């Protein structure tokens, strides 16, 4: 836990420089726009602790796998999000001395991420040798409006001296991923060019033996300068060396004169441009944005944020820390994924770091889709589904590597391009419940949006592939006279290679049922389309559907008759049943205990049976949910960032308000307060959606039933009021929950009927109601 | 399977050069003497496929661990058997051209390992450019009599030409381990010296951050030369460079003249000499052996082998391949470990390669000890036990790292110095049955030798440490009202993290019982000594012994009432029960199937329940053994080299002669025929003891019951006769088994009573009997 970040409703504020936490601050203050992202690094050189990080969406490198012992079926490479060319760099030399905040005295310092505007700003006054006081002010953003560009305004003012300043904006491609498996560099230079006040660098990912696509990224920059607000055009001295271009200007500044540099940069990827044309594209992009100028770019950028906040803001009155926490989560989700490009996804660290490889986990389906469904245009969630459809063939190949046949699909645990990029057998090969989450997301989307086109167009093919996988993955137990699922790892990764994980068995059966229903529905409504899919997937109607039905009817689910709870897996009750209070001094167990001890303990890393009861709530009586919650929650250590929100939502539904609030607090400020001591590696982007869910699905009880939006809002005792905005099937609502009342406002043109506390409420366009 | 090795009773013969198999031949023809070992490399330079390998017993390096994902409790390093200075090298230049069998034409070639004498000999006639025919003859050994030295006789004869020959014997320390985790070099040079016809190189293992002992090794050489058998003393030109020393002589040879070089070398380790004194020690060692001269060294060496064979030879009449196979196994065991030094152990590859790290696995206790007990002096097996006693404190620390307390000891899965050197959690943390094998070996030794001193002196302390581990490792299952053991991997590594592995549960209870019995026995016979041990180990008699007894009486053992077989682990019958015949086209499964598929299949890598029935045979009725054998053997794929011998011994005991012979064939020529396609990495040294057991415990039914040697010999139909030699409590026997009779000869001065086919036989000193 760290507490150096100032509590503020809209801003993340570092008051006074904390060099010891600099990498944490850099993570917290990362900027992005869906296409590119940049950690909160300084523009000028900094010799202290820093993780320079610039990332271009969809650009990765297949880093050679590192394992202790190779197992058949492991992937050859681990696709790494690629740390790319540094585009923010501006060297400042004052009288021949390089400005470096690590070596000079700092008189004043603040770094502020304004989440309302998506702007990172820095104010500092530093003292250089000879008691020279220098003021620094920088401001930058990754433009949401022109989403392959960023802009920086960087100014210096000598407060009590006159000196020659050399200012050198540069692009530097000599960048390595900190977590490269063998400390290799992943970039080659293709081309570079400098002129006057411009520079361009085209880098390409190195050759690889895996046949993986190579990416080129063109980074370009141009800058202008003013002194006291007046344009100046001093002679610029371009310089080039391997993977580096710069241009320097020299200006004599008198005491009190402010030199401001406006640096415009672009990052264009060969995913979006013809590789041979990148340099030209970069030049014209740079020309276009620098012509707009900083102020116009800035205005266009903050307008996009204003529109986003209008759709997804949550306000909390009565607790600034909670307010800051929830906006922090929403802000990062919003700048990580915009839904414009169905080839992209939501990396576990977004654009804030490079730990873990790959960009896509089941987090997307289980956690992020509900957030985007409710807070963005329909196409955003739909694009996340299409992403998986695009990877269906790879998922089929992935399953084939593990011995499955006939179109069975196993989606990877971690991926960038559809290929598996994870290499712990207990996860890669066994944490197969991920396949179920991908099926569930199709249902979730269809239920929320009412969109009947996705299933026939894309979804059913995916469901058939996944159903085929489940069919082959289960085993008929002669001993039990039922189907069993052997050797899996459930969502609770503190168990490995267990038999009959209740959650996995449940979601497998659910998938089969949903696939059968979908086929049945299409049979009645569009048999022509169904026929196309049957032909395309070579579905053996008589055999396969009968098999699936037989499995649905004959699956084994571990259950304890005494306690009347589902068992997380077969044999769970052989464990010593303790509660987290019994090991209070030994947590987090993942940092204190050896793996075998964790495995044979009853302690649960993240919701498992409860994850199932959360997803499939409608299938279970409240009493059942309560009994299971009361059994499992006391042994859950929540050492996954994905866990507390699920427990929180269930607790809220069960009326366990204190528990629900405790869970909310755990998720909301996880990164801001560096709860897990790992924020320096980057933020936990995907679990941020869980924080949003804790409020909207938890406190406000948002659900969809029979095609209708449902709300059952209450207010935590700790707050005075809160409000949130959600969209539903074309309508947009603002819901304000106060101690005594709930106000629901339809902010859109489309009328909507919804259920609030069990009663139907009808809201005309722009109407408001009080409950 | 490869068949290029000529079948021969005493020799391993490569007739004609097989460069494509050179690394295999190098492994097969490795030489050793317990202190040092050398692969069957060429003396002269060879630019083809080769793995140069020279190993010095007990010398290792802590190579930084490489894992994909770090888990708490993993060791920081993996102790690697260290490839050391090349001492056999002799460069040959003829008219300025370097001799290299990879680039010249080969007219005749044979490489022969004479196992009777422990000599590697090579004959070749090669054709050099200009149709020059050159004869080469080399002969070398690692002296069994002077076990820190080796000697080489190397001669060349120009058959049809006259030329200047430059001969350069050298020592080269520029050697890397092929399997270094990060391709690092592990040696520094400390000192080097050359003079006339001598050279010395002192290397030290690099600094390491783990506080692991650094080793120095002094390698020294001296050489003499003759022409046509007459000493010559041409001027010698010494040369030195980093980690390299040499001395060259130049001689003009006329057609038909034979130049022979005799190279003497030593490898002295700082484990045995004061580090500062190594150079002097090497010089005086070299002086001593070179003074003896090649012939005397040779004679003394082969006398040691003669003595060894007199103790442990097995003859087989009727099948040369079988004869060669069994001697090959005995030979390598004999040169890997001599039992002189209780700090050493039997590495999985011995001195024949460097794959895997560490030198000690449970193979030593479960497989090698029975071999050394029966074929070597008592101290050899005893030293192997003492080795583990020396590591007791480390085993306690190892257990502490995993959260155990109060003197609980967990011996490592792989080790060099007592610290764990393995880093797959399912093995390192969970394959804990190894602890039981270490306890069992104490029993096995005591039973075989009748030595009553080992238990009080060393053994009981180890038993107490292991018993404490079992006590803490088990869990009381309220559900079963019995003790269970959760999260283990049994000997069958094709199951991971299972609950209640029958074998592990059994050996744990057995250990507790044996410890209790040992304490009880000592209580009666030597309560003073017992008291010392109680004080030393801080044993809480009332509490701990009562706990152990309660566990012994209340352990859960999975069992199938229908089939009346023990279940390998809880839930085994949920699997689809198939036989290996069902997957004949898919074997070996470890090369064809992904790990999850292997894990959820019923297929067994190596004996597991059957390993228990083999070790604890006396606890079970033959019917029980038969039922379990008939259940498990059909699903055992024997993809571990340690498996077939156990099945073979059980089969022999059950009268399943064909199965027993099938299993024997599988183990005996595993390396010779490169059955697993991995002989090039080195030989499977520890499983070689299993081959010996297949004959002696299998076909001949050797056992010990109530302190008496037992034999129940039969002869496989495929053989005419076989004989073997074993020692038992000071007597030495030769047992010859023929189609119609068994002849037992006491070759020692000590009379012996034994049970043969259930009847007592009494043999006076040097007496013989026919049965």
Q: Give the CATH H-level superfamily of the domain at 33-310 in chain A.
A: Glycoside hydrolase, family 65, N-terminal domain
Biggest interface, residues from each chain = A-B, 48 and 49 residues
Oligomer category: homodimer
What do we call the CATH topology of the domain at 33-310 in chain A? Answer: Beta-galactosidase, Chain A, domain 5
Report helical residue fraction of chain A: 25-40%
Radius of gyration of chain A: 27 Å
| Share in β-strands of chain A | 25-35%
What's the count of strands of chain A?
A: 33
Main sheet specs of chain A:
11 strands, antiparallel
Low-confidence stretches of chain A: none
Q: Globular, elongated, flat, extended or rod-shaped: what is the shape of chain A? A: globular
* Helical segment count of chain A: 20
- The CATH C-level name of the domain at 33-310 in chain A is Mainly Beta
In whole angstroms, how far apart are the ends of chain A?
A: 39 Å
Secondary-structure-based class of chain A equals: alpha+beta
Please, what is the average pLDDT of chain A? Answer: 96
Q: From the coordinates shown, what is the CATH architecture of the domain at 33-310 in chain A?
A: Distorted Sandwich
């Amino acid at each position: 836990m760290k507490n150096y970040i100032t509590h503020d409703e809209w801003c993340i504020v570092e008051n006074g420089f904390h060099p010891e936490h600099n990498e944490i601050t850099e993570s917290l203050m990362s900027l992005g726009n869906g296409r590119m992202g940049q950690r909160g690094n300084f523009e000028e050189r900094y010799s202290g602790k820093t993780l320079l990080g610039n990332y271009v969406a969809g650009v990765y490198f297949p880093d050679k796998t590192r394992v202790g012992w190779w197992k058949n079926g492991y992937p050859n490479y681990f696709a790494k999000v690629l740390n790319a060319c540094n585009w923010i760099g501006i060297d400042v030399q004052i009288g021949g001395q390089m400005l470096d905040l690590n070596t000079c005295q700092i008189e004043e310092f603040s770094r502020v991420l304004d989440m309302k505007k998506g702007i990172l700003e820095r104010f500092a006054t530093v003292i250089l040798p000879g008691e020279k006081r220098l003021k620094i002010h920088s401001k930058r953003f990754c433009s949401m409006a022109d989403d392959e560009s960023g802009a920086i305004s960087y100014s210096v003012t000598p407060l009590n001296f006159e000196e020659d300043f050399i200012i050198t904006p540069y692009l530097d491609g000599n960048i390595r991923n900190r977590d490269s498996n063998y400390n290799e560099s992943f970039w080659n230079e293709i081309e570079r060019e400098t002129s006057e006040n411009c520079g361009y660098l085209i880098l390409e990912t190195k050759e690889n033996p895996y046949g993986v696509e190579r990416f080129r990224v063109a980074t370009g920059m141009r800058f202008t300068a003013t002194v006291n607000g007046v344009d100046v055009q001093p002679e610029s001295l371009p310089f080039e060396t391997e993977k580096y271009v710069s241009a320097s200007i020299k200006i004599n500044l008198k005491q009190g004169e402010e030199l401001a540099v406006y640096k415009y940069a672009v990052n264009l990827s060969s995913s979006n441009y013809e590789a041979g044309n990148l340099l030209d594209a970069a030049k014209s992009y740079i020309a276009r944005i620098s012509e707009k100028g900083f102020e116009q770019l800035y205005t266009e950028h903050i307008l996009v944020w204003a529109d986003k906040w209008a759709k997804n803001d949550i306000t909390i009155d009565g607790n600034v820390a909670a307010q800051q926490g929830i906006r922090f989560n929403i802000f990062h989700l919003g700048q990580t994924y915009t839904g414009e490009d169905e080839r992209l996804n939501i990396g576990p660290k977004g654009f804030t770091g490079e730990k873990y490889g790959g960009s896509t986990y089941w987090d997307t389906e289980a956690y992020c889709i509900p957030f985007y469904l409710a807070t963005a245009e329909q196409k955003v969630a739909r694009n996340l589904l299409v992403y998986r459809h695009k990877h269906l063939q790879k998922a089929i190949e992935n399953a084939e590597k593990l011995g499955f046949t006939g179109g069975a699909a196993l989606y990877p645990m971690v991926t960038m391009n559809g290929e598996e990029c994870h290499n712990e057998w207990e996860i890669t090969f066994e944490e197969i419940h991920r396949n179920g989450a991908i099926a569930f997301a199709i249902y979730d989307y269809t239920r929320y949006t009412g969109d009947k086109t996705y299933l026939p167009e894309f979804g059913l093919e995916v469901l058939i592939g996944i159903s085929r996988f489940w069919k082959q993955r289960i085993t008929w137990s002669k001993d039990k006279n039922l189907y069993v699922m052997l050797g899996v790892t459930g969502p609770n990764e503190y168990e490995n290679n267990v038999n009959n994980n209740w959650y996995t068995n449940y979601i497998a059966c659910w998938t089969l049922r949903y696939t059968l229903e979908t086929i049945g529905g299409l049979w009645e409504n569009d048999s022509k389309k169904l026929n196309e899919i049957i032909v395309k997937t070579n579905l053996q109607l008589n055999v396969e559907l009968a098999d699936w039905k037989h499995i649905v009817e004959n699956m084994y689910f571990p259950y304890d008759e005494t306690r009347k709870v589902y068992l997380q897996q077969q044999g769970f009750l052989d464990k010593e049943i303790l509660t987290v209070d019994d090991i209070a001094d030994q947590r987090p167990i993942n940092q204190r205990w050896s793996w075998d001890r964790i495995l044979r303990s009853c302690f649960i890393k993240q919701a498992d049976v409860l994850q199932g009861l959360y997803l499939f709530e409608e299938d279970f009586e409240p009493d059942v949910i309560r009994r299971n919650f009361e059994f499992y929650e006391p042994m859950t250590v929540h050492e996954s960032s994905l866990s507390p929100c699920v427990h929180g939502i269930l607790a809220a539904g069960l009326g366990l308000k204190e528990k629900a609030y405790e869970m909310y607090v755990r998720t909301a400020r996880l990164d801001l307060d560096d709860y897990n001591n790992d924020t320096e590696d980057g933020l936990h982007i995907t679990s941020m959606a869980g924080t949003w869910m804790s409020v909207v699905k938890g406190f406000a009880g948002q659900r969809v039933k029979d095609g209708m939006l449902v709300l059952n809002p209450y207010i935590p005792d700790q707050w005075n009021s809160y409000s949130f905005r959600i969209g539903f099937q074309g309508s947009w609502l603002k819901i304000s929950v106060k101690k005594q009342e709930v106000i629901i406002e339809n902010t859109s043109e489309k009328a909507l009927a919804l259920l609030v506390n069990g009663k139907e409420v009808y809201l005309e366009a722009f109407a408001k109601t009080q409950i």
